Amino acid sequence: MSSTSERWFGAGHSTAADSAKAGGEAAAQAIAGRTPAAVFVFTSGGHDAVAVLAGVRAEAGDAVVVGGVGLGELTGAGATEHGVAVAALGGPGFTVCARAAGIAGLGARAAGAEAAAAMAEIDAPHTALLLVGDGTALGPHEIVRGAYSVVGAAVPLVGGLTHGRAQFLGDRVLAGSVVGVALGSDRPIGIGIAHGWRRVEPPLIVTRSVGERIYELDGEPALDVLLRRAAASGAGAPGTAAELFQDGVNLQPVGLARRSGLDIRSLHAGDDEERSVSGTAEIPQGALVWLMEAERDELVRGAGDAIGAATAALGGAEPLGLLAFDCGGRKLTLGEDGIAAEVAAMRAALGDVPFAGLYTLGEIARVRGASGLHQLTLVALALA
């Protein structure tokens, strides 16, 4: 394996059926004979994660290897399920440190804080903390809060939540964990966040909620409010939670008001007896929210906007490469043609700049403020 004195970023992708072969092929394309400092591995159901990592490690040498299992993977070559996407970076000016923490033993907030402690090893003019956490754990927003409690406002956060209980660190496949990857660079790092959803007026007040479950909106049973709004929108007249959400296939985006704008949440289920609705992330009592909607072209445009925001944040420096965390709910909403259009929009925004990413259960991005968990959103990390 040869090394290079130049900074570099590469991306690779494989749809080989054999898991070790797929990991090795994708890693070889991304690394291309260079010496990597970090290797990011993204895959989805159908592969043996241990074998995928073995194939990647055979190409990665002593690099920090991190990643996880999501709802699909993407590169400039397109989006797939049951494939492997790999990104790698190296050369002068990069420093990388990673550590993992188990959620079950510590709780989500403490695990986020423990993973974020990787940043203590980084001394660089530009930094970011990438988090890969278990999206099936209770209180995923607490992972972000825990990380923020350690790194504060000065360090941007980015990353995503895995679909399975599988996160990667080194040659280990972890279950129920948070992996923190501290990135340091002597050149700018940019983060972009966009989604393409728009508000449906009027807004609503969350008058009673507990965690991810909303019991009342504007003082009325939450399910009744959503059923009435669905009927008024011309989307038919669903009478039950199963009809409204189509047994989890029909996702209801909700915009949660923040000082920095709207964080998107996804509702996907309801309870006909309690008249409540629920998602996978906290919507706090007292919050101001909007139901959201979008046409396919608006969602596709949102992907290009996220890429554009990330590269614009480099302050005029040329992008070297990019990592993307796209919501599995967007993938479901867009459909096959929409997914192809979204990847094309990302390629158009980046030109020849390589990128790789994962379809997630939730996206992490914070450039200001203490919040940072998103859904139905595309988050991008650009490196110069």
Number of strands: 25
Main beta-sheet strand count, sense and barrel state: 6 strands, mixed
What is the residue-mean pLDDT, rounded to a whole number? 94
Number of helices: 9
The percent of residues in helical segments reads 25-40%
What ranges have pLDDT less than 50 throughout 5 or more consecutive residues? Answer: none
Principal-axes geometry comes out as globular
What is the CA-CA span between the terminal residues? 24 Å
Relative strand content: 35-45%
Give the C-alpha Rg: 20 Å
Reading side by side through the largest sheet, how are the strands ordered?
Answer: 1-6-2-3-10-11
Indicate the structural class.
alpha+beta
Can you describe what's shown?
This protein has 384 residues and is α+β, with helices and mostly antiparallel strands. The chain has nine helices and 25 strands. The strands form four sheets. It has a six-stranded mixed β-sheet with strand order 1-6-2-3-10-11. Helix 1 (19-31) packs parallel to helix 2.
Main traits of this protein?
25 strands; single chain; 9 helices; alpha+beta; globular; 28% helix; six-stranded mixed beta sheet; 384 residues
